[in-house]
Design brief:
Elements: H1 55-67, E1 72-81, E2 91-95, E3 100-102, H2 107-122, E4 129-134, E5 146-154, E6 158-163, H3 167-178, E7 181-187, E8 202-205, H4 208-211, E9 220-223, H5 228-241, E10 245-248, H6 252-264, H7 269-274, E11 275-276, H8 288-303
Parallel strand pairs: 6-7, 6-9, 7-8, 9-10, 10-11
Antiparallel strand pairs: 1-2, 1-5, 2-3, 4-5
Length: about 300
């Protein structure tokens, strides 16, 4: 799921603005000088360097990444006992693409927290955890107090690319967004992929294989254009891109022709089987709104692992 590129290395994980958080540097937080690197799956020692940022910057970064389909993890200082660098309320966020912002106080305790966040980001089934860090006996910090920290996974919104902006798309895309997908609609026809027609949906005008390439293939590609030949090309492109879920609107006869064309072009049996067409739960849907309900129901079941 993540590109195995090593993050930047530093001997100690404390932020450059000092061991106690440095709220004064928050203006730098939204444009850190060093770009993020994806977390390495096998990385054990090297840790990302946190960019400085106050609580609002940390929360904004977490929300922005979640909406883009990038999972992460966050640490929040709950309690400070004795002499310790962290302050209750301080936050540190780490995303799967290597973005790291905030602080829980710096020094060895922050390094230990970062190690916990890296492990949490790598584990899809990770759950919330409250952890106590003993600064003296466990971490060798002379201040010797304790920090109680909440560690929580930040789930990503599943990216969904809808190719085509016709009647079914106008019903389906906003409903997908309402149930928690990050939806992008693309259509080459001028004026069709317009956000006034798609509430809470990102709209892009252009060829699907150009503007649609922005959408992370870890998500969903739904094909519902105005042209059968265009549908075929979009499905072939989605399979080559490796989208986790590929679906198309159409009858059983169209679905069979689509699979025959895929076979003729050398797509494997496994790839042909990945195409969900006809798309949607069989509820006897006929109207665009009914079809949207059936499609979204299937995608919710897929996301929950029920199909």
């Amino acid at each position: 799921m993540r590109d195995p590129v090593s993050p930047p290395v530093r001997d100690e994980a404390s932020p450059s603005h000092g061991g106690h958080g440095g709220e004064a540097a928050q203006a730098e937080a939204r444009s850190p000088q060093r770009g993020p690197r994806p977390l390495a799956e096998s990385e054990e020692v090297a840790l990302p360097i946190p960019a400085p940022g106050d609580v609002s910057a940390v929360l904004s970064a977490a929300a922005e990444h979640a909406v883009r389909g990038v999972p992460g993890a966050m640490a929040t200082v709950l309690e400070r006992h004795g002499s310790a660098p962290g302050t209750p309320g301080q936050k540190l966020y780490l995303s799967a693409d290597g973005t790291c912002i905030g602080t829980v106080g710096g020094g060895a305790v922050e390094r230990a927290v970062l190690e916990s966040l890296v492990a949490m980001v790598k584990e899809p089934s990770a759950r919330h955890e409250v952890k106590t860090y003993k600064l003296g006996p466990e971490l060798g910090m002379c201040c010797g107090g304790r920090l109680v920290v909440l560690l929580e996974p930040i789930a990503a919104t599943v990216p969904a690319l809808v190719v085509g902006a016709g009647h079914v798309a106008t019903a389906t895309a906003p409903l997908l967004a309402r149930v928690g997908f990050a939806v992008t609609v693309v259509d080459a026809r001028e004026g069709w992929a317009d956000e006034s027609r798609f509430p809470n949906v990102r709209c892009l005008t252009g060829e699907f294989d150009e503007v649609g390439a922005e959408v992370d293939p870890r998500g969903v590609c739904l094909v519902m254009t105005h042209d059968h030949a265009l549908d075929q090309r979009a499905i072939e492109w989605a399979l080559r891109r490796g989208f986790a879920f590929v679906g198309g609107i159409g009858s059983r006869a169209k679905a069979e022709r689509t699979r025959q064309r895929l076979e003729a072009k050398g797509f494997s049996e496994a790839d042909r089987a990945r195409v969900r067409m006809p798309l949607g739960v069989d509820i006897g849907a006929r109207t665009p709104d009914e079809i949207a309900v059936s499609v979204v129901a299937e995608l919710v079941a897929w996301r929950r692992g029920a199909r």
